[in-house]
Amino acid sequence: MSDNKKKFYITTPIFYASGKPHLGHAYTSIACDVLARWKRKTGHEVFFLTGTDEHGQKVAEKAKENKISEQEYVDSLIPNFKKVLETLNITNDFFIRTTNEQHKAFVQKMLSLCYEKGDIYLGEYEGLYCVGCERYYTQTELLEGNICPDHKKPCVQMKEESYFFKLSKYQDKLLELFEKNPQFLSPNQHANEIINRVKEGLRDISISRNKKTLTWGIEIPFDKNHVTYVWFDALFNYLSALDMNEKMEFWPADVHLVGKEINWFHTVYWPAFLMSAGFEMPKKVFAHGWWTVEGHKMSKSLGNVLDPIQLSEELGKDQLRYYLLSIGTFGDDLNFTKESFAEKINNELNNDFGNLVSRVHTLLTKYFGGSVPSAEKLDKEEVELTMSLNFFPDFDAHMSALRFKEALDLLWEKIRTVNAYINKVEPWKIQDTKRLESVLSVLTFAVQTFARYIECFMPETAQRIRKQYNFEEQDFSSFTAIPAGHKIGEKDNLFSKITLEKKAETKKEDSEKKEEKKTGFASLNLTVGEIIEVSEHPDAEKLFIEKIDLGNGDIRQIVSGLRAYYTKEEMLHKKVIVVANLKPAKLRGVRSEGMILAADDEEHVGLVLADAERGTQISCGKLQANATTRITVDDFFAVEMKSTGKEIHYENTALTANKKALYTDRNIVGNVR
Ligand code: MSP
Fold first, then answer.
1. How many other CB atoms are there within 10 angstroms of residue 397's CB atom?
2. How far apart are the CA of 24 and the centre of ligand 1, in A?
3. Which CATH number is 514-672 given?
4. DSSP E strands: which ranges in 580-616?
5. Domain ranges in the chain with CATH number 1.10.730.10
6. Nearest alpha carbon to residue 462 among 353, 310, 341
7. Please, where in the chain does CATH 2.40.50.140 lie?
8. Which atom of ligand 1 lies nearest, measured to the CA of 16?
9. Residue 63, ligand 1, Cβ within 6 A
């Protein structure tokens, strides 16, 4: 029976066993879990893998600090990772550890395969190495003083005999893979960056460490003096786990879900290793964005690292799962704030959804003694409502493309439609019993439908709805309607409102104030967007209203003063730069969610343009304009950018989008604002 089901294989990265899991780790696991649950419900046989990455220099150093063996050290950390999975109701099918003997043997087999193929050779490596990242950097990738951009610590110069993997040999094959299978690099916004880097040329990569510098790793089968580089070891977990579970038929993976910082390893190294070892390519690598907390990067020194277990105890497991996936587009960088959390829970879960479930229960109890009536007299409204509940294809399409927010938006649109319907038909005023029966029958069906859709996001909530309505658990292939006379169970209030503590609010204000002081290029969020619509402001003859697509479903409405300088046709489809983190404002009664960059010499105005994909973020040397904290117009004006007529400069350095310089379309020399 299960052989007939379509197989679906999904993975998280394996997390470094070198510290405690935090919100970022939990996020990837939750996203994978939501998709795994959805696929199971829609007729797939799923294998969902997660685990820990336990070798390498970082682990060796931590063990030394703690004065215990490496194995003891990693063993002591694993329960923390497993506890997070359990707490958040993650339904992984297996937990792989790279210190597992079968994994080690598998990696050795792969090394031998690549070696026999002539893809591994002995050479010498010298370079700048970041212990935190477990990798060498080229100087241009580092900050001044050879500081690692991620760890903010200096890299060390290292030279050693090392085995190399012929990555350069795979350049064309990789480009062919990207071209033939555009899904492989997901979401689209990261694709160009990877493709361009590969086009620039690939260097062979060192895949071993001499035992003189590191012993904590898998021994190279053809040279006892070397251990395997941690990324070669770690990436093969995705196959070794299948092998040891005798589930090889799940290969190729459907989705490797990873954070954007390890996208390169998964989209370049991994397919090259696989090509060399003779395996099929995974279907998709999806890179998600990073979480900041109240506008700041999580870091130990700031003391703002969020513990997923503590968070789920404080805020609720399902609430946390819901928040993380509904607050913004999956793939984008997102910002965790107590305020937005409270807003989401209070408005969407409590007001929209919780109230609906509770209202229908109350009506059934009050008018029908807790039995579901039959639907015999359907008015046009009930027919329409029932039809609108048939949104499976759209929801499924969103889920399969990992558009979690869009799937939830769709579900909430339906929930709100049902709430509006209740307000409109006012069941408590209906005199005709037959009609009332139909209304409540349809409403019960709506509650049941929503519980089924929400389940992969909020499994405990779905279970509680089923319990209070006595619904059976059903997947999407075998659905049976609720029979008339079905008795519902006891009422249960799903959510409670969150009131923000005063303390939390002052903290937030403080951090906002601090943030306001931070000016300069890095306080901006400058994103490439395409103008997809231009219309005249109804109440201001100098203003246009533009709709701008920033990629990834982010479509902004912006009011601009460009009407005096451009025609609508001239503006349409231009790739402009949007200040995307401005506080929204109303301009003559129309909401404006950002600004478009333009150069002006007091007389003429020219748009600042980019030759880059929608969603590309603007850089200036090593600075990135990807801030998440909102700024005021004054903050923006404080950042002085100039147009030289050809390029746009900030502090004498050209602004670029994906390495290509920005320009103005009218060669204007002047200020940019
Ligand atoms: N061990 C490697 C992965 C090897 S996979 C073959 C590794 N481990 S890690 O512990 O650093 O975990 C990285 C993953 O944690 C990221 O890819 C991402 O999924 C998640 N996150 C860590 N911090 C994060 C945020 N602040 N925000 C969102 N997710 C981030 O890299």
1. 13
2. 7
3. 2.40.50.140
4. 585-587, 590-592, 595-596, 598-600, 605-609
5. 337-469
6. 353
7. 514-672
8. 10
9. no
Distance (Å, whole) CA 607 – CA 526: 14
What is the distance in A from the centroid of ligand 1 to the CA of 259? 6
- Return the pLDDT at 506: 45
Class of domain 337-469: mainly alpha
Query: Which among 578, 527, 605, 602 is positioned nearest to 332, based on CA atoms?
Result: 527
Which of 215-229, 337-351, 499-513, 628-642 has the weakest average pLDDT? 499-513
Q: Is 609 in the pocket of ligand 1 (CB under 6 A)?
A: no
**Which amino acid residue places its CA nearest to atom 24 of ligand 1?**
24
Nearest to residue 470, comparing CAs of 447, 453, 502, 503? Answer: 447
DSSP H helical ranges for 296-432: 308-315, 317-326, 338-344, 355-368, 380-388, 392-400, 404-425
In percent, the amount of the chain with pLDDT more than 70 equals 96
- Poorest-pLDDT segment among 45-59, 569-583, 632-646: 632-646
Query: What is the C-alpha to C-alpha distance for residues 321 and 89, in angstroms, rounded to an integer?
Result: 10
Give the model's confidence band at 309: pLDDT under 50 very low, under 70 low, under 90 confident, else very high.
very high
Task: Name the more confident of 564 and 437.
Answer: 437
Substitution site in 10, 11, 16 for ligand 1 pocket (most atoms within 8 Å of beta carbon)? 16
Per DSSP (E only), the strands in 539-650 are 544-549, 555-560, 575-579, 585-587, 590-592, 595-596, 598-600, 605-609, 618-620, 623-624, 641-644, 648-650
